[in-house]
């Protein structure tokens, strides 16, 4: 009986230990998934704000891209809710099953202890040899033995049912976990594929053309005359195309020719009389 009780107690103890760990880890997993959803929502808002500052093509691309990311977060929210309902809650409820089974084992141990007391009492009476007391004690032992046998049978059924239910529940909980994850990732891949196509179809040249048009509208043409007494930075050689002398047409052609060949040399020599 002692070995039988140890097997029962180990079964319940292991279930309590590992189901508790599963519950803790999967709850942390679910919380991190929820935090990832929150961070992705922030990214969606940032993308939308950024889109409002950009040219038409990039604005449309970023808005559509953000919409797809938002869809993924909707699926992630559903993932979180399903994990809580189908995975975390059943694991939490297992504490009640374990507590009830422990109570049954405790009841059995009390009956077993009572049987042992009756046997000890009978042994003492036998040593003293009073026949009437011994008969009474033997009757008590028989009653205790019957009770122990009945409780043992009940407990075996309880532990067998517990073990069977534990294995079925474990299978279902993790099957639900995998199904929830598969559904989320399948939906996410579908939406991410759409997001990828949105980014791939972005027309960069149209935005650059729009940007350059705006630049010309604000600052004038790139070959426009600079303001007087303005010395361009050596780090901006394209500004040299507008630097000309005003003495006569020949000198203007000479300076332009010099600028084409060596813009840095022209910049350093600006304002000096060209060497013939």
TrEMBL record:
Pfam families: FAM92. The keyword Cytoplasm applies. It is found in: Cytoplasm, Cytoskeleton, Cilium basal body; Cytoplasm, Cytoskeleton, Microtubule organizing center, Centrosome, Centriole. GO terms for cellular component: centriole; ciliary basal body; ciliary transition zone. It comes from the Eukaryota. Keywords: Cell projection, Cilium biogenesis/degradation, Cytoplasm, Cytoskeleton. Residues 223-276 are annotated as: Disordered. GO terms for biological process: cilium assembly. InterPro entries: AH/BAR_dom_sf, BAR_CBAR1/2, CBAR/FAM92. Residues 255-268 have a biased composition (Basic and acidic residues). Belongs to the CIBAR family. This is CBY1 interacting BAR domain containing 2.
């Amino acid at each position: 009986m002692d070995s039988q009780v140890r097997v029962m107690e180990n079964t319940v103890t292991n279930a309590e230990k590992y189901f508790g760990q599963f519950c803790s880890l999967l709850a942390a997993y679910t919380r991190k998934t929820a935090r990832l959803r929150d961070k992705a929502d922030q990214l969606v808002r940032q993308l939308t704000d950024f889109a409002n500052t950009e040219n038409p093509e990039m604005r449309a691309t970023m808005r559509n891209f953000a919409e797809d990311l938002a869809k993924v977060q909707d699926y992630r929210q559903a993932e979180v809710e399903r994990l809580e309902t189908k995975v975390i809650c059943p694991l939490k409820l297992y504490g009640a099953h374990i507590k009830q089974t422990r109570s049954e084992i405790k009841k059995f141990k009390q009956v077993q202890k009572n049987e042992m007391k009756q046997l000890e009492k009978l042994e003492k009476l036998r040593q003293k040899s009073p026949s009437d007391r011994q008969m009474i004690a033997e009757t008590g032992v028989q009653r205790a033995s019957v009770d122990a046998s009945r409780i043992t049978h009940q407990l075996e059924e309880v532990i067998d049912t517990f073990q069977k239910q534990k294995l079925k529940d474990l299978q279902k909980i993790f099957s639900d976990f995998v199904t929830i994850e598969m559904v989320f990732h399948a939906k996410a891949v579908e939406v991410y594929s759409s997001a990828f196509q949105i980014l791939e179809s972005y027309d960069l040249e149209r935005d650059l053309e729009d940007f350059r048009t705006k630049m010309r509208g604000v600052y004038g043409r790139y070959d426009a005359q600079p303001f007087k007494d303005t010395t361009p930075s050596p780090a901006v050689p394209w500004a040299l195309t507008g630097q000309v002398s005003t003495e006569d047409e020949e000198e203007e052609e000479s300076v332009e020719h010099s600028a084409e060949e060596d813009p840095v040399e022209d910049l350093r020599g600006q304002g000096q009389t060209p060497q013939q």
